[in-house]
Amino acid sequence: MSISTVIKSIQDIMRKDAGVDGDAQRLGQMSWLLFLKIFDAQEEELELELDDYRTPIDEKYLWRNWAEDDEGITGDALLEFINDELFPSLKNLTAPIDKNPRGFVVREAFSDAFNYMKNGTLLRQVINKLNEVDFTDSKERHLFGDIYEQILRDLQSAGNAGEFYTPRAVTKFMINRLDPKLGEQVFDPACGTGGFLTCSIDHVRDNYVKTGSDRQTLQKQIHGVEKKQLPHLLATTNMMLHGIEVPVQIKHDNTLNQHLSNWDASFDVIATNPPFGGTEEDGIEKNFPSDMQTRETADLFLQLIIEVLKDGGRAAVVLPDGTLFGEGVKTKIKKLLTEECNLHTIVRLPNGVFAPYTGIKTNILFFTKGIPTKNIWFYEHPYPEGVKNYNKTKPMKFEEFKTEQQWWGSEEDGFASRQETEQAWKVSIDDIVSRNYNLDIKNPHVGEQVVHDPEELLATYESQQQDIQQLRDQLKGILSEALAGDKA
Predict the structure, then answer these.
(1) How many whole angstroms from its chain centre is CA 8?
(2) Same domain, residue pair 92 and 132
(3) Do the Cβ atoms of 28 and 10 come closer than 8 Å?
């Protein structure tokens, strides 16, 4: 039985339980179970590798001691154990980060977790299905990617507007171009389920890790923050599956909660797809300079990224078209970006990259801190031959970025090898300034095209409707701020 079939079987069992309501709760239920199973698999490895190793939690709460026996505890007895012993003990675990870091990870993972299931017999069936996957077997461990992708697809379906996850092709391309090296501190301030971070781990391991000492260095160079409990739990689990034994650097918090001037950390590489289209809670904007204050999430994250990037540090950020052409605070942020950083490349992605979760057009901004921008290269990513739009069954593929990779060149020589093509064009900073920092610059090599294909017209219409709703939401936020200001 394939892993994806196991996951589907688990979801089917959960649908029979009266306590589990909808995909989000099913995913939350499965996530803490997966975490404990994978945590125990890693514990078994550490026990073999290290002399006098002591488990960071009470042994009776290890998966092997209460869940592994298919004929073990079930029914009401299982529910009582989980609700009255397991959860209270792990949520209230005494585990200082300096003395018991793996225990600290467990406590953080369970801080907002919840057992939704009310039928102990069905819960035992779910556990038995999970036991069909052996995460101590290196051949099976890499198949976690199948589980992960399945969970992501379900998360996307269960998510609210604006909550979506970056396609693997985009993530891999961004990390490939950033090329994080061994020892460089990598950060995602809105890490979701950890896609950029796991991709960075794989990149560093495949290209730069040669010794045991290198592996220990890699353990400490990955950092992320996620605001919501379920993605954070999945990110932590994903880190462990990628060999990070103590993922304490994946924090459950709102990155924007801290005043910008109080950040003492700085990073060599930042890769992220910050939430856009939403607004932050009242008061968050006060953590930013008075002339840069806004409640729009993407604008705040871009300011934070510029602040915490080291001189010489490299960043790649997914942002919507609204950031490119927006005015007001957006103009000030773009001015700051081009003065503080070399915004050397903007890859303009086509419609449908994030379909069906959003129709908002997106871009990838690549920049390096410490050198002001002189020229910005734009690259309009085309659909592959025969493709008119991406969708859930036909997503973007990493291989499509081969032309960008061949064209890219080196920042060390100012990208001297780059040539203008039908997809690529260069704009000077003087032209950008004269446009009042409007970066929504159309491809000069492509004339106005008249489209008659019904499917393409329908896809465009749906995308436009989503863009209109996005604009309405932004206007509501601006109006709310203005009204609040009048009352003050």
Answers:
(1) 24
(2) yes
(3) no
What's the DSSP call for residue 284?
A: G
Do 89 and 132 share a structural domain? yes
Same domain? For 177 and 147 the reply is: no
Phi and psi at residue 14, to the nearest 5°: -65, -30
Query: Residue 161: which pLDDT band, with cuts at 50, 70 and 90?
Result: very low
The reported pLDDT for the residue numbered 160 is 44
Cα(227)–Cα(390) distance, rounded to whole angstroms?
29
Burial of 356 (0-12, 13-18, 19+ CB in 10 A): middle
The burial of 212, by beta-carbon neighbours within 10 Å (0-12 exposed, 13-18 middle, 19 or more buried), is given as exposed
Closest CA to 470 of 335, 357, 330: 357
How many structural domains is the chain composed of? Answer: 2
Most confident of 151-165, 259-273, 362-376: 362-376
Q: Is residue 481 part of a domain?
A: no
Tokens of 5: 């079939």
What single DSSP character describes residue 296? B
- CA-CA distance, 14 to 445, in Å (whole number)? 54
The CATH number of whichever domain residue 220 belongs to comes to 3.40.50.150
Q: How far is CA 286 from CA 36, 95, 328, 484, 488, in A?
A: 39, 33, 17, 14, 15
300 lies in the same domain as 442: yes
Distance separating alpha carbons of residues 169 and 95, to the nearest angstrom: 38
Residue 134's DSSP bridge partners are none
On whether both 263 and 399 belong to a single domain, the answer is yes
Nearest-angstrom CA–CA distance, 343 and 428: 11
The pair phi, psi for residue 269, each rounded to 5°, is: -135, 130
Distance CA 249, CA 252 (A): 9
Residue 8: per-residue pLDDT? 82
| pLDDT number for residue 162 | 39
CA 222 to centroid of chain Cα atoms:
13
d(CA 374, CA 325): 19
Structural domain includes residue 332? yes
Q: CA-CA distance, 222 to 159, in Å (whole number)?
A: 26
Same-domain status, 60 and 168: no
Q: Which domain holds residue 11?
A: 3-151
Task: Please report which helix (H) or strand (E) contains residue 367, including its range.
Answer: strand 362-369
Gap between the Cα atoms of 198 and 222, Å rounded: 9
